[in-house]
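Bench log, entry 3. Co-assembly request; chain sequences pasted below exactly as received.
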Amino acid sequence: MPVDVSDDELVQRFPGEPITHDNAAHYRGRLNRELLMNRCAECGRWHAPAKPICPDCWSSRVSAQPVSGDGVIFMAIFLHRGPAAPGIDYRVPYPVVAVELAEQEGLRFTSTVVGADNDDIHIGAPVRLDWIDRAGVPTPVFALRGSPS
Ligand SMILES: [Zn+2]
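Structure output for the full assembly:
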């Protein structure tokens, strides 16, 4: 059954995340393990980060819609040091990837890759969406496609 929470609860569930009117639906989706990105009902274009109007046609008929979660790694960096965060140990450099989602060229989502050696994380590698629990909330991550998750 989908989780539905008030705005106040949503902010409490994601401490430190910049939740706004524009991206609240995206974060509500995370609670249901659904990756939602804004899409325009006029021109059909996706866009991220979430904005109240479509950057392509200026329509205000935008809403958060689920994406397939398939994509390819567009950029990868490996953090040797970074902010303290639950579940992150920088003794092994922590991968941060921007994934170009299958829905549209240029539609990207930034997260990490789980269950892979850093040597196997490279630009162009196909990935699929996966979910882990971090600080008590579902967190969208990616797994290399073709690898067991
Ligand atoms: Zn549009």
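The longest strand covers residues 70-79. Residues 70-144 form one domain.
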